[in-house]
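Task 17 of the worksheet. Students: predict the tertiary structure of the chain below and write it out as structure tokens. Keep your answer in the requested format; marks are given for formatting as well as content.
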Amino acid sequence: MINQLPTALDLVAIAIGGIFGAAVAAQKKTSLVGVMLIGVVMALGGGILRDIFMQVEIVAMHDVWYIPVAVAGSVFGLPVARKLVNNSLLGPILDGTALGLWVVIGTEKALIYGFPFGPSVLIGLVTAIGGGTIVDLMVGNQPVVLRADGPWFATAAFVGATFLAGLYPYLNREILELITISVVAALRISSIKIGFDAPSTETLKKVKRKKS
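Model answer:
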């Protein structure tokens, strides 16, 4: 029998995803249905992509709690979503924590199902950035993962997924989960607060110019 991930991890990440979705919807001044739709896609999109990649049952379509928690996070979080997300302290903390949770959820599920290192890292990355990327496309924004500058997002998720997949056979599971979430959150939060950009093609060009 395959070990299952703690449902609590999923539900916390889903609720936070719903709140971030509500913030995007509020910024775009959508209808209430639009708020719920964007919240659900933000919260569940990455997990759905994960299960499609893994060719397993799409949990969000069969679990009784996933969609209601995403909707609740978006609707009940709507009155405070923008203030919360834009708060200079709480916003980055929520953002980094949610990103770390999704990295752990996606990477660990792939490892539990017997996927090797490389595909597990890919699945962890897709889980972490999938929902936000789909929402960006829905509302007409350039996906964060494709931007040439900006704080660490996909890069932080990639580092976390690589860290978790590499050390999974050697460390206690719960300890590794906490360390991975902390590493991803620290990278995301510090890049936002300090203002250093994720590595990009422009970074490589600058390094090449310095060498020449």
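Marker's comment: The two ends are 57 Å apart (CA to CA). The chain is about 75% helix and 0% strand.
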